[in-house]
UniProtKB/TrEMBL annotation:
It is a multi-pass membrane protein. InterPro entries: Gram-neg_bact_OMP, Gram_neg_porin_domain, Porin_dom_sf, Porin_Gram-ve, Porin_Neis. This is Outer membrane protein (Porin). Keywords: Cell outer membrane, Ion transport, Membrane, Porin, Signal, Transmembrane, Transmembrane beta strand, Transport. The keyword Ion transport applies. Residues 1-29 form the signal peptide. One of its GO terms (biological process) is monoatomic ion transmembrane transport.
């Protein structure tokens, strides 16, 4: 999701043969299937994981490893049929990610038109992820630079099943995005989801705002937010587990502005977890970032996030600083090094950079990661 992917194409014409399709060796502009993917691996050092330092071989530091197929068929009159099947995997052991799903990152089919927009059906990203994920600093740095516990889900902790999404054409720089995820149960509201947002682009300026709501998430294996694809039980603040939420709401807005080799970004997101035990666990994330192209091949980025959290009369906060360098060896291959520091308030008890295998035994944690990424 974080990068534009170079792609290799295999194309064939559709041939009426009475019983189905026949592959042909010549290219066709009418129909195509694209194989794409990313492989990303490196080494991560953490100064404190439950009281001990750690060196670990880690995958998906900058981009989650994946492979997939994109298909399109030109139906004429500016109308196209499209599909996307995208598998996520752990490059270090070859295991499937996203709960072991074959196409756990995305799996959808749809139609699009030049003047009609795009309608897609299947497992997809929600509107907050689509619009605000491109603004967050983790879109440039490694996943560890996302907000604590990925409380706003813009690092894609979970996707939405049974989803119908519509993305409008761009009118005067504006584009609308709406999505509904069905519960697929007789209790219509028991594990459904909806989201909506608006983005605006004008020259170097990009703005976006979005909202998402999940009702009784993880209450079933077949709903919009499946029980095997939500927050881990270990994700807890003030002793309250995020996975025990009966309703989650996420909202936010922000933008980026590019001038010369520099891009500045500002982002605010909020999230609210209504808990089964009563009350609500709330987060507010305030992020500022800068990306700078030191040369066509060397990119530097830095980000700072202040996160406040509360539950009833209990309050806490996190400070997090992230920075890194990316060197492009080619259009497809780059190397990177990132450093991260998180400081939690004493009321929270310990720091835990999102994506690191374990929390610190103190209120601070440092991580450094270096790696190699190749796209195809």
């Amino acid at each position: 999701m974080k990068t534009t992917q170079s792609k290799r194409h295999w194309s064939w014409p559709l041939v009426a043969a009475g019983t189905g399709l026949m592959l042909a060796g010549t290219a066709s502009a009418q129909s195509s299937v694209t194989l794409f993917g990313i492989v990303d691996a490196g080494i991560t050092y953490t100064n404190n994981q439950q009281g001990h330092s750690a060196w670990q071989a880690t995958g998906g530091n900058e981009s989650g490893p994946r492979w997939g197929l994109l298909g399109t068929e030109d139906l004429g009159g500016g109308l196209k049929a499209n599909f996307r099947l995208e598998n996520g995997f752990n490059v270090m052991n070859g295991a499937a990610m996203q709960g072991g799903r074959m196409f756990g990152r995305q799996a959808w089919v749809g139609m699009s038109g030049d003047t009609l927009g795009a309608l897609t059906l299947g497992r997809q990203y929600n509107t907050v992820q689509d619009i605000l994920g491109a603004i967050q600093i983790s879109n440039t740095l490694v996943q560890y630079s996302t907000h604590p516990f990925d409380n706003d889900d813009i690092n894609n902790t979970f996707r939405t099943n049974n989803a119908v999404k519509y993305v409008s054409p761009i009118f005067a720089g504006l584009q609308a995005n709406v999505m509904y995820g069905f519960s697929n149960s007789t209790g219509f509201a028991a594990n459904n989801s909806w989201s909506a947002g608006l983005s605006y682009t004008h020259g170097p300026l990009n703005l976006g705002a979005a909202y998402a709501r999940m009702n009784q998430p993880a209450s079933s294996a077949v709903g919009a937010v499946a029980s095997d694809n939500y927050y881990a039980p270990a994700a807890a603040v003030f002793g309250t587990r995020l996975v025990d939420a009966t309703r989650q709401q996420i909202w936010g807005g922000g933008g980026t502005y590019t001038f010369g080799p520099a891009t500045l970004g500002l982002l605010y997101t909020g999230s609210n977890f209504n808990m089964a035990s009563g009350g609500a666990l709330r987060f507010g994330n305030y992020e500022g970032s800068m990306r700078y192209a030191l040369s066509p091949a060397l990119i530097a980025a830095v980000g700072y996030t202040y996160t406040e959290t509360s539950q009833g009369d209990t309050n806490g906060h996190y400070h997090q600083v992230s920075g890194g360098l990316q060197y492009l060896l080619s259009k497809r291959t780059d190397v990177y090094v990132n450093g991260l520091y998180q400081k939690a308030s004493s009321g929270i008890g310990h720091a835990w950079i999102d994506g690191i295998a374990g929390p610190s035994s103190t209120t601070s944690q440092v991580a450094v990661v270096a790696g190699l990424r190749q796209k195809f």
